[in-house]
């Protein structure tokens, strides 16, 4: 049996931008992506702490060390600059493998989204 489990999480980052007139996606600082073991194009779930919204989109790589977290396209209607969000990706794996799997969890500084 295969199950879906948390693969990676960037916990409590501050949204730095919301660009409605963009194709779509979330732009994430490359350093945060690497720390969380996420890749460009990967599907992610966004959970907005400020308003309870949940949405799915995909990752675009942002400039390394910029702290950028920008929601693009329709997702920009569900967040505002300054909101605190959680970014989660999931993986599908064998049930037995999932029992011992350890996800990549990142807890950046909320003020500037830097790695601590």
TrEMBL record:
Residue ranges of the TM segments: none
Cofactor(s) this protein requires: pyruvate
EC number: 4.1.1.11
Main location: cytoplasm
Class of enzymatic activity (EC top level): lyase
Protein's pathway: Cofactor biosynthesis; (R)-pantothenate biosynthesis; beta-alanine from L-aspartate: step 1/1
Reactions that this protein is recorded to catalyse: L-aspartate + H(+) = beta-alanine + CO2
Function: Catalyzes the pyruvoyl-dependent decarboxylation of aspartate to produce beta-alanine.
Record protein name field: Aspartate 1-decarboxylase
Organism name: Sinomicrobium oceani
């Amino acid at each position: 049996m295969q199950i879906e489990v948390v693969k990676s999480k960037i916990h409590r980052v501050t949204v730095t931008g919301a660009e409605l007139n963009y194709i779509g996606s979330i732009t994430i600082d490359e350093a945060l992506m690497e720390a969380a073991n996420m890749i460009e194009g990967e599907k992610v779930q966004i959970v907005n702490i400020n308003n309870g919204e949940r949405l799915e989109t995909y990752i675009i790589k942002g400039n390394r060390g910029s702290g950028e977290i920008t929601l693009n396209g329709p997702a920009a209607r569900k967040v505002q600059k300054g909101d605190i969000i959680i970014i989660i990706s999931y993986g599908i794996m064998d049930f037995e493998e999932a029992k011992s799997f350890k996800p990549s969890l990142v807890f950046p500084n909320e003020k500037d989204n830097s790695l601590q």
